[in-house]
Design goal:
Number of strands: 16
CATH architecture of the domain at 95-432: Alpha-Beta Barrel
Largest sheet: 8 strands, mixed
Distance between the termini: 108 Å
Shape: globular
Oligomer: single chain
Radius of gyration: 27 Å
Helix content: 25-40%
Length: 483
């Protein structure tokens, strides 16, 4: 016989009570998840891991992702708006890190094609006003990161094309210029090709002093290594890379031959065979410089797809593009697509075609070494239609589909100082999302087949996007119709 004391009986009763409580809790469903919008049954695209997390419920509260959990285990509060996303794929919104939007229509078109962040490389006070209006919810559009006016040397490149362009020749004036740009609200200073080394160095110093990013073109008289060591945050178009890895260091750079007679001479020598394309770059130098660059806090924005417009293989037409273009833009688009905007000669196009393939191989090596690379279109109105082509161009340069996607999602998030918070589908991240019909890790063209876009927690379903885009198209078509 077991004799229980009062104390043992009390412990026994507590144990029985705890067992009953645990059993009761096990029988109770999990508390309903609250929020504003929930994507139910969706396949989450993990761009960081390059994998799909199937059958999830993603709940949005405000402008953040509140929770991600298996749909089978998740119940929702009655107040949550449910998006039945069974069989669909939820990916981060696309981030175009080199764009030139001008009008509110450009911004609406971007959002309508899943671009939730744009980095504006030639801004002005209008851009600052647009950013404020987007943030206030007054107009639809992506998050805007913007430079002010171009900072070029003498003579400024774009003046020859009739565009207003500033030129700077006094290093002592750069501190005030950078301070003014920061005070105005711009995010970075964009440098351009004809700055002297002295003025460029003064801009970098002023940027460090005032906490202002300096990015853009590496000037023609400055080495890329010096620019990076001086604190340049991003370099565009892969400018300066080939000059660092030439087999013949006396050769000079072939970058931007439409602007630089010295570069044009090299391009023509490549076209004629006088310079051997097979030995143009030194593989050992490529490996060494790529490894060094990967260790720096510097991002490359190669704008690789649009650079084909200097070659014999120019960009293709895009179905539906013309419905979003004004009369003036139609002619410009024809010139850009045909490669005639800069009036390249056939030998120049031949040389540029050869050099494009060399750059593609070097870009592949940079990616393999771990260099930081972001996607950018270098376009205005049509940037939203071209960003997927840029992502595909990176894939064609040796990036996996996941890595190419990261160049337009999580990598820009890192560049903006928001790793894990922007450009990912994760709990606590900003709710910039696109809902797709197919898996983009299998086929990057899936990025063109969207069922909706979420920007800062605001959901635009397919019908809403279509109405917005149809209105834009109707207005532009009417504006160019003959009287």
């Amino acid at each position: 016989m077991t004799i229980r004391t009062a104390e043992s009986r009390r412990h026994w009763a507590i144990a029985i009570g705890l067992t009953a409580l645990i059993a009761a809790c096990a029988e109770q469903p999990a508390p309903a998840v609250d929020g504003d919008v929930a994507f139910v049954g969706v396949n989450v695209v993990d761009v960081e891991g390059g994998a799909i997390v199937p059958q999830q419920t993603v709940v949005i509260a405000g402008d953040r992702i509140a929770s991600i959990s298996p749909s089978a285990d998740t119940s929702l509060a009655d107040t949550v708006m449910v998006v039945n996303a069974s069989g669909q794929f939820l990916a981060p919104g696309i981030m175009d890190m080199h764009t030139h939007p001008v009008t509110n229509d450009d911004l609406a078109l971007a959002l309508g094609h899943g671009v939730t962040t744009m980095r504006v490389m030639w801004g002005n006070p209008l851009t600052l006003g647009q950013r404020a209006s987007i943030e206030a919810g007054e107009i639809p559009g992506p998050r805007l990161i913007t430079a002010g006016d171009l900072v070029d040397g003498e003579p400024p490149i774009w003046a020859q094309y009739g565009l207003p362009a500033n030129s700077y020749t006094d290093p002592d004036a750069m501190d005030a210029m950078v301070a003014e740009e920061k005070a105005a609200g711009y995010d970075f200073v964009k440098t351009y090709s004809r700055l002297t080394p002295e003025v460029f160095e003064a801009i970098l110093s002023a940027g460090q002093k005032h906490g202002m990013e300096v990015s853009g073109h590496v000037p023609q008289g400055v080495s890329l290594r010096d620019a990076i060591e001086g604190g340049m945050r991003t370099s565009e178009h892969f400018i300066g890379v080939l000059a660092e890895v030439l087999s013949d260091e006396t050769q000079g750079t072939p970058d931007l031959s439409v602007f630089d007679p010295g570069a044009l001479e090299i391009v023509l020598r490549v076209a004629s065979g006088e310079v051997d394309a097979d030995t143009f770059v030194d593989p050992e130098k490529v490996e060494d410089f790529a490894s060094w660059a990967a260790e720096q806090e510097h991002w490359f924005v190669p704008t690789h797809d649009i650079m084909r417009n200097f070659t014999n293989n120019t960009q293709r037409s895009f179905p539906g593009a013309l419905r979003f273009m004004s009369a003036a833009e139609l002619g410009l688009f024809d010139d850009i697509e045909s490669g005639s905007f800069f009036r390249l000669t056939p030998p120049q196009k031949t040389g540029e075609s050869i050099l494009y393939e060399i750059r593609t191989q070097v870009l592949k090596e940079f990616h393999a070494a771990g260099a930081k690379i972001m996607a950018g279109t270098d376009h205005g109105r049509l940037a939203p239609l071209l960003i997927v082509e840029e992502i595909k161009a990176l894939h064609n340069a040796g990036f996996s589909t996941a890595a190419a996607l990261r160049a337009a999602t999580s990598e820009p998030g890192r560049y903006l100082g928001m790793p894990g918070e922007l450009g990912v589908v994760a709990e606590g991240a900003i709710a910039d999302l696109i809902l797709l019909d197919a898996n983009p890790l299998d086929d990057l063209d899936a990025l063109k087949r969207m069922q909706g876009v979420m920007a800062r927690g605001v959901w635009y379903d397919r019908a809403t996007l279509d109405a917005m885009l149809d209105d834009l198209s109707a207005r532009l078509t009417a504006a160019r119709a003959p009287e």
